[in-house]
Amino acid sequence: MSLHDEITACTLCRDYLPHGVRPVVSFSPTARLLIVGQAPGSKVHESGIPWDDASGDRLREWTGLTREQMYDPAQVALVPMGFCYPGKASGGDKPPRKECAPQWHERVLAELPADRLTLLVGTYAQARYLPEARALSMTERVRRFEDFLPHFFPLPHPAWRSTIWMRKHPWFEAEVLPRLREAAAASLA
Fold it and tell me: Does domain 3-188 correspond to CATH entry 3.40.470.10?
């Protein structure tokens, strides 16, 4: 059984998932761009396609990736911190289940090229992969993205709330997004 098949058959968190188990992940041994997000939302849970929602549209806009590029596992790995939709909480979705990343991430990363670029989308991914920067706010990690290159590129989550955040931080569009698009394109070249 392939690792992807093992993950899609996983039921580790079934007792905590009000909408049932449906791990959503995409990767292959040739993907040199890895996007680590939070967890699937309700639309992604329904479709089974990572980032198949408004947040995914915004993320593609930020990165300059086409739908074809983003959904080509030979180019882009899409690996959330929690692989299943955790359900609703007040003000949004519940946090990703804590079982997924320790259970699966190292095995997935071992299948990917060592020279990959990893986009860390949101605070959960940044907390796991940038432990030395935990004292920084998410905004500071994003602003200091160059400190984490060439391996990591921290980003805010592209949910609708990011529009408000972007208005408060115009440097994100002016300075960070052009570099993000360059880095993403270079990783696929």
Answer: yes
Q: What is the CB neighbour count within 10 angstroms for residue 181? A: 15
Task: Spell out the domain ranges in the chain.
Answer: 3-188
Could you tell me the pTM of the whole model? 0.96
pLDDT of the chain along its 189 residues, tens only? 999 999 999 999 999 999 999 999 999 999 999 999 999 988 998 998 999 999 999 999 999 999 999 999 999 999 999 999 999 988 788 999 999 999 999 999 999 999 999 999 999 999 999 999 999 999 999 999 999 999 999 999 999 888 899 999 999 999 999 999 999 999 999
